[in-house]
Design brief:
alpha/beta, 2 domains, seven-stranded mixed sheet, five-stranded parallel sheet, Aldehyde Dehydrogenase, Chain A, domain 2
Length: 476
């Protein structure tokens, strides 16, 4: 059978380019698909006419688009959908296997990510209610109305939502899903090793009755990505610290990069630390440690050595398993050079006194290993003597975390930005300080995994407030 070809989608219409890249199996190098590449000029041309895509969505009510989104969720999870423009189709099982082959995620993790996306798609009414704080969505249809007896009016901040997507975790696509129900078309630059999820989601939406014009799918280079961001009024960009600094202060761009999510055990709960090892381990290692909501630091007032050792005993022995093994907990690297970099970065920083790789003694061999042709990194737990150590506040695309002792009175002034903090405490004074801490985006009070999110509460920016702005209104 021929190799599938994924075309660019220019307002939903397939476009085959002479310039193509191959997406390959991360273990064998076998070509899984060819993907058409478009240049920055095509992105500029299409975004110059993006009003047509917005007009196609405006023909629907929000309620109709919510229903289409729910139907798309069922098709995404259970349907056989088009895969490219050469007559290929893709079943759910084929999607799982192919994504695993190119991204390194084991099947079980792909299935869990599928389930998250399905839930978001089929609960869009609940999500919009939470993001808008109970706004009657007919206000978006008409442009104005009432809420709690007061006149309200909202207008869109953009004609399109630009997306520069990563390759490390399919579930990040959940962040753009509300855009369609809110009548804002999407312009997607997919991750090089992960075109499958956005393409499948687009096909599910179109099969469910969404207008094809609402979807742009533009595999492109760095210049093309820049045009997506420059010409879209609102953007979600996924990247590293350098990417975050590039767009710092730009109100049209939400950067989703390192989360520096943390677990803090309060002084009132530290004597019971053994009870919390399960939630700490899951926070560090679920989804192969590849999410920005994975905990990358555990901060405690004492017993740091004992806690680090207990975590290391659980995670140190974890080895790579076959991709279709339901017990697989590690992801392979589509780009082995990334694994090389992470492994050497940790080893180099361990040369600075004050840090110990506690997992080393529980590991059967080195941190970086080859398994069935793939490259994997085993979990790494580092005990740091001080928050000032270079490994104390780091984040890598593998199960990694530091364990640091710090007086509770100093924690919130030192830890910096945190996407998610799980604070295991019942101390009213400390909880009050946590609630007022401006550097925490999402706060879990109690033994709750950092990986647990609430879809009706934003944990990475409020998409409704990003895409719509309220204005004063008076009507005679």
């Amino acid at each position: 059978m021929s190799i599938p070809h994924l075309p660019a989608l220019r307002k939903g219409r397939p476009y085959e380019s002479l310039d193509k890249v191959q997406v390959k199996d991360h273990k064998t190098g076998e070509v899984c698909a060819e993907v058409s590449q478009v240049n920055a000029g095509i992105v500029r041309k299409d975004l110059g006419r993006i009003g047509e895509a917005r007009a196609a969505l405006k023909k629907f009510t929000v309620a109709e688009l919510v229903a289409i989104t729910a139907k798309a969720g069922e098709l995404f999870l259970n349907g056989t959908l088009p895969l490219g423009d050469k007559g290929h189709t893709q079943s759910p099982a084929e999607y799982i296997a192919t994504l695993s082959r190119t991204s390194g995620l084991p099947h079980i993790m792909v299935k869990r990510n599928m389930a998250k996306l399905h839930y978001a798609l089929t609960h869009m009414d609940m999500i919009l209610n939470g993001l808008s704080r109970g706004l009657d969505m007919s206000v978006i249809d008409k442009g104005f109305g009432e809420q709690a007896g007061c006149p309200v009016a909202y207008f869109p901040t953009t004609k399109s939502l630009g997306l520069v997507m990563p390759s490390n975790s399919p579930a990040v696509n959940s962040l753009w899903l509300p855009s369609i129900a809110l009548k804002i078309p999407v312009v997607i630059k997919p991750g090089r090793e992960e075109p499958w999820t956005p393409f499948r989601l687009i096909q599910a939406f179109i099969a469910a009755g969404a207008p094809p014009e609402a979807f742009g799918f533009y595999p492109t280079d760095h210049e093309g990505s820049g045009e997506v961001v420059k010409l879209s009024g609102r953007n979600l960009v996924f990247g590293d610290v350098a990417m975050a600094k590039m767009y710092e202060g730009n109100p049209s761009v939400q950067v989703h990069g390192p989360g520096w999510s943390k677990i803090i055990i309060g002084e009132d709960k530290i004597e019971n630390w053994k009870e919390y090892i399960d939630v700490i381990v899951s926070s560090i290692s679920d989804n192969g440690g590849r999410s920005c909501i994975n905990a990358s630091a555990v901060i405690v007032p004492k017993y740091g050595k004992e806690i680090a050792d207990a975590i290391a005993q659980r995670l140190g022995p974890v080895d790579p398993l076959p991709a279709d093994d339901e017990n697989a907990r590690l992801s392979g690297f589509a780009n082995p050079k990334m694994a090389d970099y992470i492994d050497s970065a940790i080893d180099n920083d361990l040369k600075t006194p004050g840090a110990e790789d506690v997992t080393a003694k529980y590991r059967n061999g080195p941190r970086k290993v080859e398994f069935q042709g793939g490259t994997f990194l085993r979990p790494t737990i580092i005990r740091c003597d001080s928050w000032n150590h270079s490994l104390a506040n780091r984040e890598f695309l593998c199960p990694y975390a530091s364990v640091v002792e710090m007086p509770q009175s100093e924690v919130l002034s030192k830890i910096g930005y945190s996407l998610i903090v799980t604070a295991i405490t019942q101390d009213p004074e400390f909880i009050g300080e946590l609630l007022e801490c401006p550097t925490i985006d999402r706060l879990n009070i109690g033994a709750i995994s950092t990986m647990k999110i609430s879809w009706d509460q934003p944990h990475e920016g409020n998409m409704f407030e990003f895409l719509y702005k309220r204005r004063s209104i008076d009507c005679a």
